[in-house]
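Example record

One chain of 331 residues, shown exactly as stored in the release files.
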Amino acid sequence: MTNNSDSPATAYYLVGDIGGTNARFAFISPGERRPSPLARYLVADFATFDDVLSRLLKDWQALGLPEGGPAKTCLAVAAPPHLNTISFTNSPWRFDRALLKTYLAQSSIDIINDFAAVGYALTALEAGDVEQVGAGTSQAHQPMVALGPGTGTGVATVVFDTMRQPVVVQGEGGHVDFAPITDMEFDVLRRLRARFGRVSIERLLCGAGIVNIYQALTEIRGQPVEFSSPTDIGVAAQRDNPLAAEAMAMFFAVLGSSAGNLALITGAMGGVFIAGGIAPQYIDLLRRSDFRARFLAKGRFADYNTNIGTFVITHEDPGLLGAALYLGDQH
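Predicted structure tokens for this chain:
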């Protein structure tokens, strides 16, 4: 790639999707819709966000991109984006706009919530970017919801204005109260409440939540703890380890209940989309679970959810796609 930062044709934008485990970055030129990968970093490998920015600019220049850096930047962050200092919910990283300007001096800078970015991506997802679970459809220009268990739990809603243009509604839906349905879920709740006090759905619907469920089940069943990470539990469940399989089944059942609740709240006739890093790894377990049954199990309003499609997002990084689309819409 020719490095000629004086030419408008070589102006590039930077987009980032920064969560609690990974920080992903990509670049895109004006007029394009899908960004190209730039770098992916593990949060655990960098003590500060200052270190990340220093490494990022080196990787930017190594690709032959303009030495002056990006012309525009949009960072999607797993944190409230409107505060002066961005403090991540599930990582020790902190940064402010002054730090960003130190490294991105020639760039305009937008900061949005990571799940708002997923929301922006929803209307651009293609058939190969999702896998449907169960029946139902996605009706055009109707409300859509993204729910994402990963390092934490994100939620975003997309509605449409009178011109049928998408509008992303940000929120913190991952921190609503957990509502158990089965007797076993009540038993799990009692143990989690003893540990945490208030129990949100994020205490179950994330990587650490899988461990929380599994550990609670070992206590209830009087069994030894064999696994200590969500990956180990997920793999063991795929190999039919009884307690790991029960934990993953509960995880997906609670996910289905939560997704169904969000569908009722938002009238999500455009579909409910499961994002985050967990569901795509374990679609086999999700399909075997009560996910769809619990999505539909809404008493007098079971019929309301019947025609609403549920989809797992298999796109490698909808957050980067959404951040790029946000830049296109705003500038």
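Notes: Residues 1-8 have pLDDT under 50 and may be disordered.
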